[in-house]
């Protein structure tokens, strides 16, 4: 069985070895299939509401999300962080249980860019030839729609799950702001959560269960101005110093990480996945074992005939498991000193330590197990090199993984889209994960279904979160 020749709807999941609630599984999966047009309409409605970040105003999409939930009879709270940064949180409480699952996603999207370079309207939100189209189709309004849909279905059917099920739609993710998931978690809206699923884009068979650290910073380098005709005999060019710094900082690649023993197999599996599935050139898997350095922006000087008095360099480094941000930043300072470059170093943007959830954690095992039945028996969790709200959940001690429908090659680009069938698959995966992770009060073995156990955990720079 392969991903390409398997129809998720054709698998008799009700006959699987689910521990609890087989009848509920059958009913939920059947309804998601029957009402797939409604699910895709919801995804399209979200896409058609512009919520580009920057500027980051999510007022309209937050209002739509809250109104849609309330229209389904689901209570929710809108958390206003100002400047159009709004979050929507909803809770459903079941029978007594130890577990608390969060289904989450962000509804801000990156800017569409040059509209003329799209082959269809950027906010189309339609389905054409089996593809859901528009900004956010992959990142990540289709996935968010799936979590909303499942959350509402659990309420509509009055499924007797155990514990608590929460839904969180957040803002401020794309720009690394702190008024989305950070604020929701800091204010205690998701207190007690034992596991979370974020509907971030993922390859169809490979949820992401860990990510490199994110370490952005700005270098400000001062020179001594003078007449351009006398350079290099007079004046000190900040631009030349910046150029030297840019070249020297490539040495960060040579730092050697020392990952914890229990993560090394995950790293090895992720390297294989990257080479075989990601579609990049051979050798891309080295990204998991090195610090990457992107010189994103360089600004310096005032005119061609003036020796530059100041240069500013914005740098994005990503930190592999086995190193910390402080180790990377210490090496940055050493490199600059070795090259005689004085610079102010200021943290910017995304900042997080490497973070992960072990494959043995119950939430990972549950979702991956569901995905193996629905789509691919070889499905497994892997690492990613990007950053997301998962870092925030793990920082709060909440095991989390990411799985959502996507055409990965279109993320943050023109003509963003994802397969409609993958939107349906993701919703089914969320439904099975919810039922099996929380358990049902009327299913076989219900007495023990909600115990958390110690099947795994989250990590950050090698330490439990």
From TrEMBL:
The yes or no answer to whether the keyword Metal-binding is present is yes
> Top EC class per UniProt?
hydrolase
Protein name, please? Probable succinyl-diaminopimelate desuccinylase
Asked whether the UniProt record includes Acyltransferase among its keywords, one would answer: no
List keywords of the entry alphabetically: Cobalt, Hydrolase, Metal-binding, Zinc
Q: Which residues form the Peptidase M20 dimerisation domain?
A: 209-341
Q: Which organism is it from?
A: Brachybacterium huguangmaarense
EC numbers? 3.5.1.18
* Classification via InterPro entries: ArgE/DapE (IPR010182), ArgE/DapE_CS (IPR001261), Bact_exopeptidase_dim_dom (IPR036264), Peptidase_M20 (IPR002933), Peptidase_M20_dimer (IPR011650), Peptidase_M20A (IPR050072)
Which SUPFAM superfamilies does this one have? Bacterial exopeptidase dimerisation domain, Zn-dependent exopeptidases
Q: Which Pfam families match?
A: M20_dimer, Peptidase_M20
Catalyzed reaction equations? N-succinyl-(2S,6S)-2,6-diaminopimelate + H2O = (2S,6S)-2,6-diaminopimelate + succinate
Q: Point out the coiled-coil segments of this chain.
A: none
Q: Which cofactors are reported in the record for this sequence?
A: Zn(2+); Co(2+)
Q: In which pathway does it act?
A: Amino-acid biosynthesis; L-lysine biosynthesis via DAP pathway; LL-2,6-diaminopimelate from (S)-tetrahydrodipicolinate (succinylase route): step 3/3
User: Which family is annotated?
Assistant: Belongs to the peptidase M20A family.
């Amino acid at each position: 069985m392969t991903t390409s020749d398997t129809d998720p709807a054709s698998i008799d999941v009700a006959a699987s070895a689910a521990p609890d609630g087989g009848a509920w599984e059958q009913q939920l999966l059947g309804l998601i299939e029957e009402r797939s047009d409604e699910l895709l309409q919801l995804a399209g409605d979200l896409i058609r509401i512009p919520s580009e970040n920057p500027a980051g105003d999510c007022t309209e999409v937050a209002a739509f999300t809250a109104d849609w939930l309330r229209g389904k009879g689901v209570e929710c709270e809108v958390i206003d962080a100002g400047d159009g940064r709004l979050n929507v949180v909803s809770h459903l409480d079941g029978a007594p249980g130890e577990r608390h699952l969060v289904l989450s996603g962000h509804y801000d999207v990156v800017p569409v860019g040059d509209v003329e370079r799209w082959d269809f309207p950027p906010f189309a939100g339609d389905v054409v030839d089996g593809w859901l189209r528009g900004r956010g189709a992959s990142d990540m309004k289709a996935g968010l729609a799936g979590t909303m849909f499942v959350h509402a279905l659990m309420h509509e059917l009055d499924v007797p799950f155990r514990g608590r099920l929460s839904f969180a739609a957040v803002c401020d993710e794309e720009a690394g702001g702190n008024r989305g998931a950070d604020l929701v978690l800091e204010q205690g809206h998701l207190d007690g959560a034992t596991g979370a699923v974020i509907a971030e884009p993922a390859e169809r068979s490979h949820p992401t269960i860990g990510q490199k650290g994110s370490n952005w910073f700005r270098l400000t380098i001062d020179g001594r101005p003078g007449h351009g005709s006398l350079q290099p005999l007079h004046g000190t060019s900040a631009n030349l110093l910046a150029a030297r710094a840019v070249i020297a900082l490539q040495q960060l690649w040579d730092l050697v990480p020392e990952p914890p023993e229990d993560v090394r197999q995950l790293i090895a599996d992720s390297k294989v996945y990257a080479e075989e599935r990601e579609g990049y050139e051979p050798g891309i898997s080295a990204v998991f074992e090195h610090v990457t350095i992107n010189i994103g922006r360089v600004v310096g000087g005032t005119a061609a005939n003036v020796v530059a008095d100041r240069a500013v360099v914005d740098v994005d480094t990503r930190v592999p498991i086995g190193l910390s941000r402080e180790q990377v930043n210490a090496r940055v300072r050493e490199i600059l000193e070795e090259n005689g470059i004085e610079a102010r170093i200021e943290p910017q943007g995304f900042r997080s330590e490497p973070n992960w959830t072990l494959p043995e954690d119950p939430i990972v095992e549950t979702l991956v197990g569901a995905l193996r039945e629905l789509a691919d028996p070889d499905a497994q969790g892997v690492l990613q090199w990007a950053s997301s709200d998962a870092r925030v959940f793990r920082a709060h001690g909440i095991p989390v993984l990411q799985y959502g429908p996507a055409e990965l090659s279109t993320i943050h680009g023109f003509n963003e889209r994802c397969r409609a069938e993958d939107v349906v698959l993701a919703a089914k995966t969320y439904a099975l994960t919810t039922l099996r992770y929380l358990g049902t009060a009327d299913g076989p073995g219900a007495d023990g279904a909600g115990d958390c156990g110690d099947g795994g955990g989250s990590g950050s720079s090698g330490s439990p979160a």
